[in-house]
Amino acid sequence: MTATLPGSRLKPNSHRSKNATESFTHITEFKTPIQFLKGVGPHFAEVLRSRGIETVGDLLEWYPRAYEDRRVARSISDLRPGEIVSISLNVVRVSSVQLGKSKRRMYDVVLKDHTGTINAKYFRVPYRGYFERFQPGMRVRVVGKVTLYRNRVEFHHPDLRDDDALEVATDCLIPIYTETEGITLQKIRGIILSALEKVKGNVPERLPQSLLKKYELSGLYESLKALHDPPKDADAEFTRGRSVFHKRIIFEELFWLELLLANKRALVKVESAHELRGGVEKVQDIIKSFTYELTNAQKRVIGEILTDLHQPHPMHRLIQGDVGSGKTVVALLACAYAIRNGFQSAIMVPTEILSEQHFKNAKSLLEPFGIRIGLLTGSLTAKEKKDVVSKLKNGEIDLVVGTHALIQEGVEFQKLGFVVVDEQHRFGVHQRQDLKQKGVLPHFLLMTATPIPRTLAMTVYGDLDVSIIDEMPPGRTPVVTRVVYPNKEILVYQFIREQIEKGRQAYVVYPLVEESEKIDLKNAVDEFEKLKNIFPKFKLGLLHGRMKPDEKEHVMNEFRANKTQLLVSTTVIEVGVDVPNATIILIEHAERFGLSQLHQLRGRVGRGDFKSYCILKHGHAVSDESRARSEIMAETSDGFKIAEADLEMRGPGQFLGARQSGLTGFKMANLVRDIDILHQAREAAFAIVKEDPQFKLPEHKILHEMLTKKSGPISLGTVG
Ligand code: ADP
Ligand code: MG
Questions:
Q1: Dist. CA 297 → ligand 1 center (Å)
Q2: What is the mean pLDDT of residues 669-688?
Q3: How many Cα atoms sit within 13 Å of 330 on the Cβ side?
């Protein structure tokens, strides 16, 4: 799959160097459609196309997922389920049985060596005459994955062929590709070898020679050749996918990504923005009015923001801070600072509940200082909306808090200078861009309470400056977390009762999974009725995503004012909700939540001075993995540690979200495993952009080509 490099906004170079262009004249070789390769008929072309492989370049990027080492003789008794092996065996017999009443047959080839027998089963015939070739007593080569079925190891659809007719020497390493229905490994190998043959001598090097030298990387063709046609003397590093050839490919994948990020960041730094003058004294009176002292982390981050605002370039800064670390006041102070420099500010949040909350906060903290605050959400009446919109345009509102409504058509600002996006992971990239375009390059502050591992932050947020609030307001004691099972329900309710009797409040949360939204909703509503009977003395509220915004708002207000003591909710309360008097959260079906979601939910309590509790209640059937998740939750309240654990358990996909969904699509690189290579690729990319931002040096022309090119010689589908 060839893809574009969207973020690149480099203007096409008008006087392209002849050399750089020339080095790409051979791209055609990579672009050759696969059906022009020897051995690829219409059928194979179709099968390959269904895997997204259309060109020779795509094919060469279809890297082996493993290597089988023929240099070691294997025997049946030492086969382990899950491993891919190549083993030489004798045919005992070939038989076929009808599958049930259908016409389909299962073929069963019984094989043996001196250590035992094993079955190779086929539920479809690879091709006509496939089995006729094998007679009892014949020696065959079996290549496939060892499968455990009813406690016995067997092969399913292995590659089977006459061992003597081997087209490859027996003492080598064979690349194994992810099998695709309709293509045998042998066939894949054949096609890829002919692709290599086809491009031989025509593969342009895309990385500057200086990089190859500095990072000891092998050449592009050399690497492709080695990966698909391993050298005889390949060592263990190679079989594990850690050879210099692998490194070269991984480095390159990561390098394009980092180059893109470095370029993006450099572009931001040359855009011009309003310089907001002054120091923290500009908002000192507001800070003094707070009932608490800012934490050192909050002060440091405010300092970092103000330094950015002094620059003639727009700030693009992300605050990463754990739930409850106090990001809101930092954002509000920065807004106030921009306003006192004569600009409007906007805060965009993902939910109406949150916008109401920030609006209230802003009103109580900033309005006394003459700052005029507006709220813009989807649930305003047409008249209210019109009023806010016209005030924004006339500059009669200084700070507006809102949801997506902020970026709708017709919303204009008089002088927007500063934009905050809270819980930014909830927004797609474009929505943020839209808000940005409302003003003349406003400064941009993003906030996220879903900490992501530092290693990942580097790539995911590679084009942003990152500030970290790594300190909690004083007096917070970590939330006590317990895992319980349904048989402890009565004790749990008793505990909740005690808390409420002490004057505290509680949340009970039910999962809401998209596919079965209706059923889940019913659960929450049913449980609400049940809980009313269990807690007859208390007032209960019910909150879920299907309610109208003003109903939700009403329910939240009642809870905030302690008019209701127990809030039954679906995950709509997950982000940002701040009710310091709530000290206990019971999460039902905790096994259905991911780690970061559990962490977010737990963050709803422990926000005040009272000792708080989080009870993770599991259903009856719980997997080891969800048990492990709960254990991590019980062990630590540090969002960064939880993120690391999540990364280990589930991989990086979930952290990337809308921001760079392509990040998980690397062909070979793995952001977790290849962190060292990532560091190098980043160092290399940023150094180049710093030294030569316009890519003017001859050896950088090729980078410019790659960045501006709609499609590279080999897919860059991983970038962007
Ligand atoms: P989050 O970072 O999760 O958005 P909030 O900004 O909602 O956290 O803050 C959580 C709670 O901590 C709020 O009730 C806020 O008023 C309070 N808070 C913020 N900063 C401090 C501080 N320095 N000292 C004490 N309480 C604070
Ligand atoms: Mg918040």
A1: 12
A2: 89
A3: 32
**How does pLDDT run across 516-542, given as a tens digit for each residue?**
555 555 677 888 999 999 999 999 999
pTM: 0.69
Q: For residue 142, give both structure tokens.
A: 């079996």
Tokens matching residue 73? 């003789």
> What's the rounded Cα separation, in Å, for the pair 374 and 218?
59
Kindly report the protein residue whose alpha carbon is nearest to atom 16 of ligand 1: 326
Pull the structure tokens for residue 460: 């995911």
In the listed set 610, 636, 662, which residue is the last one of a domain according to the structure?
A: 636
The whole-angstrom separation of Cα 637 and Cα 477 is: 10
- Total domain count, the chain: 3
Locate the ligand 1 atom nearest the alpha carbon of residue 361 and give its number.
16
Ligand 1: nearest atom to the Cα of 469: 2
- In the beta sheet, which residues pair with residue 98? 105
Cα–ligand 2 centroid distance for 298 (angstroms): 13
Q: Is the CB of 608 under 6 A from ligand 1?
A: no
Same domain, 298 and 443: yes
Closest CA to 333 of 392, 385, 276, 377: 276
Residue 605, ligand 1, Cβ within 6 A: no
Ligand 1 centroid–CA 357 distance in Å is 13
Q: Is 324 in the pocket of ligand 1 (CB under 6 A)?
A: yes
Are 567 and 431 members of one domain?
Answer: no
So what's the pLDDT on residue 426?
57
Which residue's alpha carbon is at the smallest distance from atom 9 of ligand 1? 326
Q: Which residue has the higher pLDDT, 378 or 283?
A: 283
Q: Which of 292, 296, 328, 599 to mutate to test the pocket of ligand 1 (most atoms within 8 A of CB)?
A: 328
Which tens digit of pLDDT belongs to each residue from 382-411?
A: 999 999 999 999 999 999 999 888 888 788
DSSP single-letter state for residue 111: E
User: Is any ligand 1 atom within 6 A of the Cβ of residue 322?
Assistant: no
Residue partners of 571: CB distance under 8 A and separation at least 6 = 509, 511, 512, 593, 597, 601
Mutate to test the pocket of ligand 1, among 300, 329, 333, 356 (most ligand atoms within 8 A of CB): 329
Percent of the chain with pLDDT over 90: 36
C-beta neighbour count of 624 within 10 angstroms: 7
263 is a domain residue = no
Ligand 1 centre from 654 Cα, in Å?
26
Does residue 602 have its Cβ closer than 6 Å to ligand 1?
no
Mean pLDDT of 78-97: 88
In tens, the pLDDT along 316-373 reads 898 988 888 899 999 999 999 999 999 999 999 888 888 988 999 999 999 999 999 9
SS3 for 372? coil
Residues 357 and 444 in one domain: yes
| Residue 14, pLDDT score | 29
pLDDT (0 to 100) of residue 653: 63
Residue of higher predicted confidence among 641 and 503: 503
Which tens digit of pLDDT belongs to each residue from 142-201?
888 898 888 899 999 888 877 654 455 556 788 878 766 667 777 888 889 989 988 888
pLDDT score of 437 more than 80 = no
Helices (H) and strands (E) counted in the chain, each on its own, are: 25, 21
Q: Domain holding 423: CATH number?
A: 3.40.50.300
Residue 608 alpha carbon, nearest atom of ligand 1: 14
Instruction: Determine the structural domain holding residue 493 and report its residue range.
Output: 480-636
**pLDDT for the residue numbered 347:** 95
Instruction: Answer yes or no: do 424 and 494 share one domain.
Output: no
Q: Please give the pLDDT value at position 625.
A: 79
CA of 409 to the centre of ligand 2 (A): 27
Q: Which two tokens stand for residue 483?
A: 């895992």
Same-domain status, 493 and 586: yes
- 167, 187, 212 - which closes a domain: 167
Give, for 389, the enclosing helix (H) or strand (E).
helix 382-394
Binding site membership of 357 for ligand 1 (Cβ less than 6 Å): no
Which residue from 578, 583, 610, 640 has its CB within 8 A of the most atoms of ligand 1, so it is best to mutate?
Answer: 578
Distance 476 CA to ligand 1 centre (A): 11
